[in-house]
Amino acid sequence: MNKDVNTHLVIQQKILGRGKMINSKSRLILLALLTCGFSVWTEAKVKLPAIFSDGMVLQREQPIKVWGTADAGENVEITFKKKKYSTKADENGKWQVVLSSIKAGGPYEMNVNDLSIKDILIGDVWLCSGQSNMELTAARVTDMFRKEIESYSNPMIRYVKTPYGNDLHGPKDDISRMDWKALTTENAPSFSALAYFFAKEMYNETKVPVGIVNSSWGGSSVEAWMSEDALQAFPKKLRERDIFNSDEYRALANKCNGMMSDLWNTTLYKNDKGLHAPVSWYKSELNDLDWKTVDIFSSDWAINGGNLLNGAHWFRQHVSLTKEQASKNVVLRLGCIRDADSVFVNGSFVGTTAYQYPPRIYKIPASLLQAGDNTITVRLISYGGFPGFVKDKLYCMAIDGDTINLSNQWKYKLGCELPSKNGDVSFQNIPTGMYNSMISPLRNLTFKGALWYQGETNTGKPDEYEALLTAMINDWRTKLGNKDLPFFIVQLANFMQTHPQPVESGWAGLREAQRQVSLKVPNTALAVAIDLGEWNDIHPLNKKELARRISLLTKKVVYGHKDVVCNGPICKSMTVENGKLILSFEDGTNNLMPVDYLKGFAVAGEDGRFKWAEAVIENNKVIVWNNEILRPVKVRYAWDDNPQGVNLKNNAGLPASPFQMTLQK
Question: In sequence order, which ranges of 392-525 are alpha helices (DSSP H)?
Answer without folding.
Answer: 433-434, 465-479, 506-520
